[in-house]
């Protein structure tokens, strides 16, 4: 079968801009951090430019039983999860071939709904039957394609506590400001997180949906906590490998994967795009003071699931 050179238009069917505009007319709209228009769909907020690929992904993507779908909300350790999963699935028995040294993990493991914005070819051949497709999405469980939910493909979800997620998101956002622009006020950023008014938000619902499904179908969805990944790297990486059907057999294999995917190494690789240090870094006292506000605004949505969030290690 002829292989496609264009990953995004082949993996999801194109949708006309006019169709999306008509479809989204009645959906709630808001402004995220004074910089991005967001639209609410199925109870979650999406950047308006992501609605089209997200809708196309949901309506036309056909999952295969051997697919591996990585899922996470923004700034929760996605690059790390992509790197680890890539090494487990692709480099398990190929120690001499280091894929992470040749290209950024995001080009080896594309985020499907944002792949349309890629400026260079992606290293995914969706017609390759020799091994599983390894893909990623930021989409909430509610809007995943039915084929993902109903097939035997595996889903690995990575969650992170809301405080660190927020601060990471805030730093990342401020990197794109012009020199004459002030950082977005952290107080307002906290309020946005609490109200769920952010990309792929509400945060708690995003986490809780995947956690619930992982409890119902533990053979289908693996729920991984970033904090446990940091504190027990060997145990958690071995857990992911077991779940993906690629358990480590030889002594030293897990250590090799951990070395390849260490955060320090990923940052130091020449092809890893490492942004400069944020221009403004709030003190820990400021952060802690602001984080105390998290449970106060619009608490009904969050308090409805305190047990779930505590169990996920992401209680607000």
UniProtKB/TrEMBL annotation:
Its EC number is 2.8.2.-. It comes from the Eukaryota. One of its GO terms (molecular function) is sulfotransferase activity. Keywords: Transferase. Residues 65-271 form the Sulfotransferase domain. Belongs to the sulfotransferase 1 family. This is Sulfotransferase. It comes from Salvia splendens (Scarlet sage).
